[in-house]
Amino acid sequence: MSGIAKNKSHSSVPLFRLFSKRNPIGVDMGDDILKLAQLENNDGKGIKLLAGGSRSRPKDVVTGSIIWQKWAIDSISELTTNGEFSGREVTAALPASEVFIELIKMPKKKNDKPAGNTEAVLSKIKRKLPFEAEQAMIKYIPTEQENVLVIAVERTKIDRYLAIYEKAKLQIKSIDVWPAALTNSYTSFFGRRKTDVETDAMLVDIESSRTNTVICRHKNLLFARSIPIGRCLLETDEAITRLVLELTACRRQFVSMYKRGQIGRLIFLSGLDADKEICKTIAKKMEIPAQMGDCLAAVQITNSQECGVERRKSPSTEMTSVQEQGQSGWATAFGLSLS
To answer: Residue 37 sits in a domain of what CATH number?
Structure first.
């Protein structure tokens, strides 16, 4: 699997899915919320939450600003110092809004592998990039049937986040991507039946300002897209209909790119903060069997207060502390720790 091209100033940082005996801390730097989680295998008895924590970005702090960088460094330092985290090694992901994703067709070589290198892939998508192609760090994932999932990030933003982690005294194990993290959570917690191995599943993670969706066949990542419609906007039937139309467009593109592609399961990975009635409406309109995927309920938690998370549903959508975060958005952080 080809990795994102390394930036020269951080050439020693390994990228994407490296392994060690101890699970790393998963750092999900979301658009609105910073979440950290560390999981561990409990002697073959399942997966245990070792530690977790989160902080909401203050409304007056602009993402990308100097003040925001200081807030991120201070928040990470506070959480890792006061929490029950083991070690300083982390697997991190950038916010979905910072990541460009496109599914493209690439011709095959004679050996039946997708032809393609970074330059060839870049030439296919450079006109669609929201930033200068020269600043792009590209990762491309050959999937199936000559399809390639392209992931691109602006180089300066990668450097910005790496600088934050370094100043917070974290050791970067790898920079992963949110689609892979969601797939990790699905396969670890909800895709363990025999039939799941051959089932195309659509994963839907409704966050405060965005909805991230992945289509995978067990561990095989096939499609991903981030939709700028989140929980805060889903207050009207019109907004819900818009989200359904966007998810339907994702399914339509998936079916057009993969012969015999058919989504058999719809799994909401947003935890208890996702409105069940909204999820039911989405599933009904899309006519796909669905289930709620509560990641916190799928892991063992000895003491929720010591771990830094609460099993209770957050009392409001405007969350300001670890306790108020409740179940929201842990699928990405958990998946990163499982990388």
So the answer is: 3.30.420.40
Orientation angle between helical segments 178-185 and 330-337, nearest 10 degrees: 90
Domain that holds residue 69: 13-97+157-178+298-337
Query: The tokens of 167 are what?
Result: 């100043």
CA distances from 59 to 74, 235, 250 (A): 16, 20, 31
One domain for residues 43 and 87: yes
Amino acid occupying residue 193: R
With contact defined as beta carbons under 8 Å apart, do 215 and 222 qualify? yes
Give the integer Cα–Cα distance in Å for 184 and 190. Answer: 10
pTM of structure: 0.86
DSSP string, 60-107: TSPTTSHHHHHHHHHHHHHHHHHS---SSEEEEE--GGGEEEEEEE--
Q: Are residues 281 and 209 in the same domain?
A: yes
Q: Residue 272: pLDDT band by 50, 70, 90 thresholds?
A: low
pLDDT, tens digit, 9 for 90 and up, residues 209-232: 899 999 999 999 999 999 999 988
Instruction: Give the Cα separation of 251 and 262 in Å (integer).
Output: 8
Q: How far apart, in whole angstroms, are the C-alpha atoms of residue 290 and residue 287?
A: 9
Query: Span 188-206, mean pLDDT?
Result: 92
Q: Say if residue 124 is in the same domain as residue 32.
A: no
Domain shared by 28 and 91, yes or no: yes
Do 235 and 280 belong together in one domain? yes
| Domain co-membership, 198 together with 114 | no
Q: Are residues 76 and 123 in the same domain?
A: no
Secondary structure string (H, E, C) spanning 101-149: EEEEECCECCCCCECCCHHHHHHHHHHHCCCCHHHEEEEEEECCCCEEE
Judge whether residue 328 has pLDDT over 90. Answer: no
Q: Is 1 inside any structural domain? A: no
> What does the mean pLDDT of the chain come to?
85
Does 7 map to a domain? no
Other CB atoms within 10 Å distance of the CB of residue 44: 5
